[in-house]
Write a structure and sequence with these properties.
Elements: H1 4-10, E1 12-19, E2 23-25, E3 31-33, E4 37-48, H2 56-59, E5 60-61, E6 64-65, E7 71-75, E8 84-87, E9 90-98, E10 108-114
Antiparallel strand pairs: 1-4, 1-8, 2-3, 4-7, 5-6, 7-10, 8-9, 9-10
Length: 117
């Protein structure tokens, strides 16, 4: 199925942080230096996890325990667990990917916990 229209009709801009590859700083004894973070604005459908969404099925997921300050995002690109995003001025961390690959190869659904871990 193609979910492009669904995402586009319900989407808003979020910022994803992309960590560039780190490297060893041989001038500093070979110390590992993390790569810089770059920001990229993308479109995603974002929904708060409401009280109804906190059923036992989602309250305790692979990413830990969720609460009503956490969000679920529907996006047309792959993200990484632990990746940071910003929505409405607040930082979130991608904590779990929900597998909907049997429905669409282009749709990615993630649970994001409020704050940066």
């Amino acid at each position: 199925m193609d979910f492009t229209n669904l995402i586009n009709n319900n989407s808003e801009t979020i910022t994803i942080y992309i960590s560039e590859e780190g490297k060893r700083d041989w001038d500093d004894g070979g110390t590992w230096k993390e790569g810089p973070l770059t920001e990229k604005e993308v479109q995603a459908a974002v929904f708060r996890i409401g009280i109804k969404g906190l059923s036992t099925q989602i309250q305790y997921g692979e990413g830990g325990k969720y609460d009503i300050s956490d969000i679920k995002i529907y996006i047309l690109q792959k993200l990484s667990i632990g990746q940071r995003i910003k929505w409405k001025g607040k930082d979130y961390t991608v904590s779990e990917e929900l597998d909907y690959s049997s429905h669409s190869k282009d749709l990615y659904i993630y649970i994001c916990k409020k704050g940066v871990s």
